[in-house]
Amino acid sequence: xxxxxxxxxxxxxxxxxxxxxxxxxxxxxxxxxxxxxxxxxxxxxxxxxxxxxxxxxxxxxxxxxxxxxxxxxxxxxxxxxxxxxxxxxxxxxxxxxxxxxxxxxxxxxxxxxxxxxxxxxxxxxxxxxxxxxxxxxxxxxxxxxxxxxxxxxxxxxxxxxxxxxxxxxxxxxxxxxxxxxxxxxxxxxxxxxxxxxxxxxxxxxxxxxxxxxxxxxxxxxxxxxxxxxxxxxxxxxxxxxxxxxxxxxxxxxxxxxxxxxxxxxxxxxxxxxxxxxxxxxxxxxxxxxxxxxxxxxxxxxxxxxxxxxxxxxxxxxxxxxxxxxxxxxxxxxxxxxxxxxxxxxxxxxxxxxxxxxxxxxxxxxxxxxxxxxxxxxxxxxxxxxxxxxxxxxxxxxxxxxxxxxxxxxxxxxxxxxxxxxxxxxxxxxxxxxxxxxxxxxxxxxxxxxxxxxxxxxxxxxxxxxxxxxxxxxxxxxxxxxxxxxxxxxxxxxxxxxxxxxxxxxxxxxxxxxxxxxxxxxxxxxxxxxxxxxxxxxxxxxxxxxxxxxxxxxxxxxxxxxxxxxxxxxxxxxxxxxxxxxxxxxxxxxxxxxxxxxxxxxxxxxxxxxxxxxxxxxxxxxxxxxxxxxxxxxxxxxxxxxxxxxxxxxxxxxxxxxxxxxxxxxxxxxxxxxxxxxxxxxxxxxxxxxxxxxxxxxxxxxxxxxxxxxxxxxxxxxxxxxxxxxxxxxxxxxxxxxxxxxxxxxxxxxxxxxxxxxxxxxxxxxxxxxxxxxxxxxxxxxxxxxxxxxxxxxx
Length: 794
Known about the structure:
This protein is an alpha+beta fold. The protein is built from 34 helices and 16 strands. The strands form 3 sheets. It has an 8-stranded antiparallel beta sheet. Strands 3-2-1-4 form a 4-stranded mixed beta sheet, with helices on both faces. A 4-stranded mixed beta sheet has the order 5-6-7-8. The mean pLDDT is 88.
């Protein structure tokens, strides 16, 4: 930098210091900012002349002021935003020149002036891809130094690629976000002078809306000048850039300008209210304006209208933007579209229920997703779904939209990197029902695959959409009938899901799908089990948990954690050594310690019956520990059946300390809630009588109006080999199903390790984890023979 240039800049810096120092004597708004901006302009012009004009080889370029600097509204410590626009990016001289200019700017503004400066480098060809925030800054651009022709070229390129509807939508969305962050009323005790309601940004946004819709920008009113004046003084008393006008700063400013704090705040709030009113009027004028929303779609006096040749995707985007702006979409049918811009259509379909309802209203949804609208009046073949397929789908979309970001499930939504496949999967997950209830996931996946291919959707998004539809019932099935405490269940589910991206979207789809079935479909118990499955699977997929199926390793780990001065090592060793491996792998240490006490009591002939009400799952856990005997489990289930309790979970374990001890934990509920105290007392008494041998379960069932001889009809079944083997069954609904199935299992000589039972879609589903009497897995042919015999009886 030339010495004479540096001297001139120092002189300008001194003038700036004096300008700031005199501010309390002559508190002013825009006039002060313009004088301040002029000084900064002169400094940048000197730097430009020194670095650029002196370079003979450098191609033309333009140095622009943008944002508040472009509006000539620099408060004492405002950030300075500049943009360089080159004419020839490939020029080596350009690179050297710009590098030198930036170095000098940084040296002066950061070193000498202590001012923050932001840089941007824009090519004319960048205009088409600029986001709304960048375009906003360039709306207020002005030339500081360099080529006027480049500025005109940039203005032309921005105008040709300007999406009015999308821009306005982004501006209103930004304002709403700032209102939520700071305050949505101008009448607040400690206002944010820039971004809060009634702040400077309200006027800025009003003018941006005017410019976007073809109006001329309005001149700043007196109320704007008042707020700028107060912002200048706030910077002065704070000694730094600050926009939050605290009570302390109010007092300091009031004292500096010689008025009372009450008078100062009266002026501030009056001006803020006027600015906010101006913003609201600008928003209202959107409904009176005519402007483009997307190719072929315009906003005209508050209504979305069609013009010219239409592409289905572009048209859908126009409807989505119009919906977000509160414009009316009429019942006038959209003309037949000639093509579909797939990515655009996918974006529009992912903007929520209101857009989808409007797309349906104008007939465009029928053209985009004919399989969905064809299911408008199709009702699922069960007594659970309250709505038709179409309405169920709309409500599932609504559920996803309404997930609060600070909720448990909202955290999953925030972690999901791409949600468009989720929305498309929700829209198509049930469209296969008109063809086949049983095979509707496969049919829906095929429809989605064909649609994605026709729309040119990328392979990753298409693959995710198909997978979600094909497996949209998977998580519900695991939650309802699988033992989530069994590590093998989590490992198996993790393998089916594959990665965290699939897990997150499947969880969200399941959450929305269940909620949309009926108001009563989602329960706290279902939510707790689903969250448990999600968290444990996520842990496996992220490699945070390592489980082992080796009983010896599990016993050693458990023994180390169970060591206690109050329990002899020999007793611990004996107890743990005789516990089944599935128990070791799935029971918390503190529960194992409690169960040991129960077993020690049972050995002495003292059975345990423990009742624990779990508000988190709206259910009751009943634990029994007693000397084992044939038919004990079915007898206990018979008691629950007799008193109309619904059984959703069974954890059955047998250990041997001097004698076989049965340790069983049941999860039960009464009308979807924890068991009432009066019923609980009756159940406890009946269990005690059963355990001591004074109660005949058949007599109890008859007394309670139940048929103990009734056999259980099985609709379909599946055996998953292993130890234990998993027998999955689907049966008609009924509280007596667990009792009747356990009686059938006892008759076969099989042992129940654990079980999950769920009622869904007019049927009951159950998964029994079984072993032979010798602790081995079940034989496929033996199971088939027994079940075929049971099926043939019906």
